[in-house]
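User: Sequence recovery, please. Input:
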């Protein structure tokens, strides 16, 4: 039976993203067995794997941490001592049973050798078999075996510091590292698990543990019923895995899966970029977190009654810290004079401009001016998911209008599969430039965001170039 690894573990072991592995699988360069990968196949696909090179994953982790407004976990990146002890105990038990199995096989081998020398009448057959056994024991494709053993050793260390969670019925899987709860790790990996508060109050994150063990890492006020406890329900925001887990958990797959929420938020930070553009950071109360899908929008209402709808520019991985790019402030002076600490009522999520998570096509993002807001959310979500095969962002704006240029450059610097092309000036000329780069659109997924006039021009030009209707996703600014 070959040693099989899930996609998350295999990607982590060879230091690449899951999308890089999936690309190889699609091209037939790496085979899978019921969705898992044999260590020998992994080594064949990545013969030059450097066991300690995790540069790419560290860059992705940094981007995810920034999108979540967290540091890159704590200094050690390790689980609590209790979790470490529990995992080490389990691995010691496995080691003991493997050792006793190995002992039994060695005894069998000795007996077989003995019987061969005693029993076979045919001298030539006997010596052929003995020589074959000897050679096999000595060589045994030593180089490959050494590499596989090195990979297995690394996998064992990984199993101590990170447990794997598989969600059913979706089949999504991810690693829980450090002191993360099962919920935090799901969000960090771009999965839309059901939740409401992230601190043990609402009970919305409860899920059933089908196999494996968890440990409670924080107190919760929400009380699970006796029947729920008996059935194995736990709160995902208050538990971390001790072992690999299979859980039955609710996830959002479409906009219809997330209810409309009303939350009273507070202005946490204001960044006035120029007279007509304000980057607004809102924070929800500790007991409430906004659940939404990347690319969706919210209606913001001020105490005086003024209200407007804006795209959420931040990642759904952090539903407490929400970012908005407010434009046309001259038309909306009440928003222009917002102050730090002011209360803002928020009603969300709205809209259907979301990432096509199951698509394996390269993603092309076309943003005009502050149409960058939902595109930023979509890109951060796509990076967290690690399943988008490649990103190309074209941001069209007036000179000086690429107000988060450094962020886009940082994505392009950090990720091998990310390209960023800032364009200035005339809309039609800029779109012509995009179509020169992509004359063939039948194999890309296009995300388009900007004001009405830009969207209309872009839609017409993309259709002329035979972009299939189902691959065009539009976020239009009011
Ligand atoms: S998210 Fe509210 S209890 Fe876990």
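Assistant: Recovered sequence (478 residues):
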């Amino acid at each position: 039976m070959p040693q099989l690894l899930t996609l998350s573990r295999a990607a982590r072991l060879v230091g690449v993203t899951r999308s890089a592995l999936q690309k190889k699988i699609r091209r037939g360069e790496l085979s899978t067995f019921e969705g898992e990968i044999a260590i020998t196949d992994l080594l064949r696909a990545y013969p030059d794997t450097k066991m300690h090179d995790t540069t790419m994953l560290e860059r992705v982790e940094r981007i995810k941490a920034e999108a979540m407004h967290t540091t890159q976990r704590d200094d050690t990146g390790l689980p609590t001592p209790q979790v470490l002890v529990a995992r080490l105990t389990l691995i010691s038990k496995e080691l003991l049973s493997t050792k006793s199995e190995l002992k039994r096989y060695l005894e069998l081998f000795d007996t077989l050798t003995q019987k061969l020398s005693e029993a076979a009448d045919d001298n030539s057959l006997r010596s052929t078999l003995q020589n074959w056994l000897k050679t096999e024991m000595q060589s045994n494709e030593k180089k490959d075996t050494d590499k596989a053993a090195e990979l297995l050793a690394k996998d064992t260390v990984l199993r101590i510091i990170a447990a794997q969670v598989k969600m059913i019925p979706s089949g999504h899987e991810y690693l829980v590292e450090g002191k993360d709860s099962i919920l935090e790790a799901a969000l960090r990996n771009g999965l839309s698990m059901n939740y409401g508060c992230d601190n043990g109050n609402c009970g919305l994150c409860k899920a059933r543990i089908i196999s494996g063990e968890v440990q409670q890492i924080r107190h919760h006020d929400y009380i699970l019923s006796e029947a729920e406890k008996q059935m194995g329900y736990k709160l995902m925001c208050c538990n971390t895995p001790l072992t690999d887990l299979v859980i039955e958990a609710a996830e959002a797959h479409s906009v219809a899966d997330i209810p409309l929420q009303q939350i009273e938020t507070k202005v946490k930070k204001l960044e006035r970029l120029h007279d007509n553009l304000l980057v607004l950071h809102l924070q929800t109360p500790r007991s409430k977190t906004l659940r939404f899908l990347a690319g969706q929008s919210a209606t913001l209402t001020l105490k005086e009654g003024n209200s407007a709808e804006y795209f959420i520019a931040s990642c759904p991985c952090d539903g407490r810290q929400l970012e908005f790019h407010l434009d046309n402030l001259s038309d909306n002076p009440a928003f222009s004079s917002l102050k730090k600490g002011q209360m803002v009522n928020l009603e969300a999520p709205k809209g259907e401009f979301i990432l096509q998570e199951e698509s394996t096509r390269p993603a092309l993002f076309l943003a005009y001016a502050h149409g960058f807001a939902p595109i930023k959310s979509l890109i951060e979500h796509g990076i967290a998911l690690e399943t988008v095969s490649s990103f190309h962002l074209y941001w069209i704006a007036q000179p000086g209008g690429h107000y988060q240029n450094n962020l886009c450059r940082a994505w392009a610097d950090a990720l091998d599969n990310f390209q960023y092309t800032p364009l200035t000036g005339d809309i039609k000329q800029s779109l012509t430039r995009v179509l020169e780069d992509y004359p063939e659109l039948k194999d890309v997924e296009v995300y388009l965001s900007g004001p009405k006039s830009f969207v209309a021009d872009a839609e017409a030009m993309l259709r002329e170039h035979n972009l299939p209707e189902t691959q065009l996703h539009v976020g239009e600014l009011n």
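The chain has a mean pLDDT of 88.
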